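Ex. 9. Protein: 1-phosphofructokinase.
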Amino acid sequence: MAKILTLTMNPALDLTLQLGQLELGQVNRSNAMLTHAAGKGLNVAQVLADLGHELTVAGFLGIDNQQAFEALFERRHFVDEFVRVPGETRSNIKMAESSGRITDLNGPGPQVSEEAQQALFARVEQIAPGFDVVVVAGSLPRGVTPEWLQKLLLMLKGLGLKVALDSSGLALRAGLAAGPWLIKPNTEELADALDAPIISIAAQAEAAARLHAQGIEHVVISQGSEGVHWFSPSVALHSLPPKVTVAS
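Predicted structure tokens for 1-phosphofructokinase:
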């Protein structure tokens, strides 16, 4: 069993609505509604907990609607190291139609002050040496720059920690420059970060070799229903998920 710290800078309350067909500009009625505390890092934490690992979770959390997250932490026995910030954690709305089409509306997240950023940085620097792996996942909230994320990753790397990064856009670009132990972009995110098309498996392998040269040991590239390619310096693996029927 490993001790793992996950960092979710921009968690979300996910509201999922199930309906027959979305009619734009009309009053729509849902068949079911589900609300749950989420965010990439928290989703990763739940899977790792199911696999038997010991989890501590951290990031920024709005104080006005923190109850759903605190209930999750208590239910899953997560150690809570989140820094509270004024306002609400963002809400993301998913509208799932019977056809399988899903429409996402993602909120922007709270404004995070420099004081809160300094508090989280100091807290992570203090507790991180006790962990086997640190996972940094998801987007950045307002006020948090890619440069701040890069500084955090470099600090963790300087402590000798294995750091796994799953982000996109400017945050991914900044993260790559820090040379984390593992990254997990999808093909579009990686192509954007490297300013190069990544269409074929050969192109993925070439991109992975380029990243290995930068000190990134593991490059995991997700492709939706086409599975995942995992490139390490010594081996390349392809995992293909089985076809499934969506139940709800």
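Check your answer against this statement. The radius of gyration is 19 Å.
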